[in-house]
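INFO  loader      accepted 1 record
INFO  loader      residues=325
INFO  predictor   begin
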Amino acid sequence: MSISLRALAQAAGVSIGTASRALKHQAGVSEQQRQHVQQLAAELGYDISRLQREPIRRILFLLHAQHTTANATPFYAEVERGARLECLDKGIELQPFSVNANSSIRRQLLQQEADAILCVGFIEPETLAVVQALGKPTTLIDASAPQLASVNPDNQAGTRLMTAQLIAQGRQRIAFLSGSLAHHSIRLRERGYREALFQAGRLADPALEALIPPGLDLASGTRLALNELLNLAVPPDAIIAFNDACALIVQDACRERGMTLPDDMLICGFDDIAAAEAAHLSTVAVDKAALGAAGVAQLLAAAEHQEITDTLHPVRLILRASTGV
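INFO  predictor   done
INFO  writer      dumping tokens
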């Protein structure tokens, strides 16, 4: 008689979710754990056919509440659109959802009755741990975490290219205005900025890296960080904002100070949201819908017990009037 998955997990000293992922060759377990669980399954006579999963019919689009604000919505709404179109083509329901931190995360997720989960953008580590323990196919979009497959734009290349462009235009003091570095994408965008400076033989000036203080909304936080930059003894002559929403606020604030753009300051963002084109903002274009579609494709591959790996989507520069082009 075949033992249960619970009994197998107990014998292996792992959670049920880890045992399930190990047997299905999914991400989220180490190779050592995978081999250990599979060896025990063979020794104890676990019936692998028990793991045959019903086709994915419902995917949870898990988005942090901070990503549902007006400033974040243009980016993540496009990611959701791409995921939804991919699901529609395959007869799958996509359910957007944000957890309530004041009640049981596990209970909330189970109540959604999803077959697979897309974790989109920044998600707290404790929430990701609960998601992993469920043992469902899981993919991250615009994020990264150990032992979970992910889909990301090439954030580092994007700011590297933009910084190199500004250097080529003769700008000497290029600043980077950053949001929280707890976000995977923002960390890599800052790294690309520094990488371009290094490749040009320039030392990174800490005074030119302004961070939006935690706890502030984007508008007030951006203005506070911008004031720090503009009040330097030698202010920047170009600013790369961590995303377009931030860059648009920088543009408005500079004009309010009486600056003539782009003569007095070159400004650029990242993501290429619709408002960036209307404001003639130079930016780094991200195919946001493609990220969503690729995330769904990864989940379907995982459900078929296929090995899946992180994927990096190319980005491209969009040069407009805000950088004098």
